[in-house]
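Can't attach files on this board, so I'm pasting raw text. These are the components:
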Amino acid sequence: MVKVCKKLLPLIPFMIFLISCMEVDEKPSIYEGTQEKHLFVYLDTTSLGKFFAGQSAILSGIPVDLINFDYVGFNQTKYTNDSGWVFFDSLLNGYYIASVGIDYPFNNDLDTTRVTGQREFYIYQDTPIKDTLTVRVSGNPGLKINEIYYAGPPNNIFYFYDQYIELYNASPDTVYLDGMIVCRMGPCTIGADNVTYIFQFPGEPITGREYPVEPGQFVVLAQDAVNHVIIQGGNTLVNSIDLTHADWEFVNPQDYADTDNPNVPNIVDIQEGHRGDFMISLGSDIILIADGTDSYYPDGIDIETIIDVVEYSSISTHIKDITEELDAGWAGVGVIRYSGQSIERIEPGFDTDNSTIDFVKLDAPTPGYHHGHE
Amino acid sequence: MNTIGVSIPNSWYSLWDFTHNPLNFMYYNDFEGTRTSLYGNYKTLNIHRPYDAESLLMVGALFETFYQLDEKTRLFAAIDFKNTYQYNQFRSIEKDFYTSYIAFTDTTMGDFQYNGPLIDFYFSKDFGSRVTWGLGINYGVERGIKDVFTQTASRELNSDLTTSLRFQTLSNLYVGGWVRRYHGRTSLEAVKEFQDAQVQTWLGYTVRKIESPGTSIEMEKNKDGYQVGFTLTYQHETIPFLAYLGFSKGTEENDARKGTKSVASDRGYWQRNSSEGEIWLNYGLGKSSWSLFGIIKSNEDWGKTGVYEALFLETEENHFLGGIALTSRLSRNIDVKSSARFGKISYDYVNYIMTEKRSRKEDEWRITLDIEVHPYPVTSYIGGINIEKVPLHYTWEIPSLYRYLAHAGFEYQWGFNRLCPSLVWGIEKAEELGKDNTLWQIQLSVKR
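---
Top answer:
Structure tokens for the assembled complex are below.
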């Protein structure tokens, strides 16, 4: 037996060497699903001092939605306690958005008013457990970009010319479209400094009174105001839409192939050298409306003139192309090209300047009306 | 039975299976020379899991050669080229969704076609009278395409290298060791021509992440494995008795990422730590023999998420198997082979992402009976039946099914060749579901 062992001895260092070469990952000590997050829901009363003089601005008993953007089906809703704190536990590592959107009954002159807010954060190992979710009293009245239909209908001929933008007058007063501009923006560095397309309504900005929009009225701006369901002859687009009754049509006089429905008034391209229609990206883009007092686009659009901006992207990890000052989030996560899907505000005119929470994805476009209100 | 001195995994029928035990260094074969086979398998899968295909067709050609080059040198080589068709595969864009804890799906049902060659090479040589060295190489490439609206292309490349050394320490005691290293790489690309492919990444079997839509989404998987094993064989000098003891331990690493190498996003990593012990006792005299065997196998797996590196699953799998095989000559023209084996398998699975636990313990057994009749010098008839209870993985809705197989064939001496057509018919029954799977296999081999 001793002889046997002696003969085996040379094998041992060889095997030890081979085993030591096997570099394998260590098993992690951190288990998934054990993270916590404590949020203090803070009501920003900076501009509401007259309502809250001497009053506590703590919001108790309000629901806070926590959305996990890494996995499907791991969303939670918890309520704030009497101190305004909300506690989430058994959380996964990941990217989250906590949001508040509730009609809150204040005990002051605000009465019942919409309160909204959002906080984005990562939960990952040593990220802080305690954080603050700032909410504000919402409701910026005025003209809004209410819906953007950009994905195109289900088809196999790359057809997306039924795109449209829907506006909504969320103010109690009539607004006028005269001279307003509608822009497509590229990635901006400061404000809205990167205009890609610029189209303008007829009339005089600010003072014009030719093209009114009544309170609660929708306005559809079609890329091509035609019936897209039958437009392509042999390739009938049964899932497209009829835009012959659109309120406005984008037309570029420099694009000789651009369709122009004579029964629909035009929003006209004013950008020199641009020879295309108002075609917007099927995946990611920025749409802006402004009052038109600054239509000199090479240096961008002055922020004071901007009425509304919406950034959209189908990608949940999208890197924003405009500052939070213009739009704190982006709409359209998960919208698929050539799917007939659209994005629309949760409620007509609902606007917290954060498109992530303001907009929802729709399975079908709703030109001239709001989803659930047809 | 020929001794080749290296592991001969039954892997040339499966490019994808790395779980086989390469411990056996006995080469079971009934011929020396070459064998060329054409084969076709068709299986209906009425009993299947959600992301399995509904039927399977495999056709291929296999060329094998085994030669005792001289007294001390042996060589086996094989090349197998096969086409595999997986029909009506729901959502999965992987060949087998359930073999990995990190898998990719889209939203369509379609047919997959895979094809590619697989090459096996095994060589062994005796050095002096006491040392045998062996080398085994297994290499395969395969490409696949799912030809529906979401077109998914897959490319897989696997390589497997085993080397072994065996010493005859005493006149009838052999001590051996072997090392195995394998690597696998799979690339998947989902392309939707006119709209975005909706790819989802699964972590475990219930948790999924929706990937950002795009017209083309690429995924990549890598697998690296290491195994070491020790063997001890006792062979009596005068009595035809052989005892064999083996033990192996290994680690397999798997990672999955979305995107190309330049823009990759880790989706996860999982590791399998396996150990296996095996014992065989064999006694053979003339055409009669018996074998007893016992196998213990254990896999412990864990997985971590790609970006956050937190433990998301742990599993443990234990498998015990024992059996007996008998071969006897009933008369001058009739040989009978029979075997019976019994086992127990258990699984424990925890997914921490949603605190999901699954456990399963199931018995298994198999009985086989084969008869070879040699009525004429140039002709032999072969037939047999096989009945077994098959335990199913915890991803199946049912715990087990029953499989009944019957096979028949004959060998005919034709010049210097032996023609060997064979036919296999089988049925799998799951009483709980009231469904059956049927299997047909036809093969024509020419031995020379």
